[in-house]
Model the fold of this input.
Amino acid sequence: MKIKTDGIINNTSTDPNKILPMKYLWAREYYKSGVANNWTPEEVSMQKDIEQWQSATTLTELERKLILWNLGFFSTAESLTANNIVLAVYRHVSNPECRQYMLRQAFEEAVHTDTFIYCCDSLGLNPDEIYNMYQSVPSIKDKDDFVVNLTKSIFDPTFEPKGVENIQKFVLDLIGFYVIMEGIFFYAGFAMMLALKRQQKMSGLGEMFEYIMRDESLHLAYGCDLINTILAENPEVWTAEFQDTIVSLIEQAVVLERRYAYDACPQGLLGINAEQFCVYVEHMADRRLERIGLPKLFFKENPFPWMSQATDLAKEKNFFETRVTEYQTAGSLSWD
Done:
């Protein structure tokens, strides 16, 4: 098979040191939107959160467990994602405007990692407990292992995304981290933390999760455009069998996230039960499938319309009741 040499991967004519002229202008737009969304965790006051965390009555034991589990999952998932970008994806996508955005994304993952350091320090949490949850909590470990096992092959230093099989492996890596990790595995946790914030509990932590979710919406959108571009430029890899493989992986991911939702929040929160978190995950999975040209699986309505507002970047309304919609100084995206 003749290898395409002028696309977004395997491009022998690209000089990664020359960003002009640009070929993939959508990548440049993601970079500009990322810059416009710039934030740091220290901008968010944790004083009220500290008071609530130290109070014997404000938070239930189940709410404390939910907070700890979400901090434990996200603290290592962000690092796994950053390592994949820097050590694997960046090497194989040599297009300079795409690389510019991936560097921006890697920076944002570092900010997210710093957020969990800030939270541990502010609340006086045991870092060994938080950062070892990806090994000690089965439903967190299962999610991380699922993505890592899906993407191991492209970390081989001899790997090149050439030929149908290897391009498919590369696309599976992108689906693993952009679509499954950032697009599905993050979303039950987002919903839980924002549900707490809606009850005036751990509002500072909830605000930081809003910031993270806004960044992740951009990451997901960029990843889907990257995947769709590779598939459009290499249509021979988009076989019926490969599509079935992706659909099966999405189904497995939803099962794992449903298990996590029940483990982390077995009795639900005020007005929200664990099954609703699961329905929300299925709804989001269908959106991810459609975004990469695959049919829906679950056909579930969004049980949390306030979450839809929080993730749709084209919204102008100040729905967060914070600065989240105000700090974006330029650009908006509509990719749903």
Remarks:
- The radius of gyration is 20 Å.
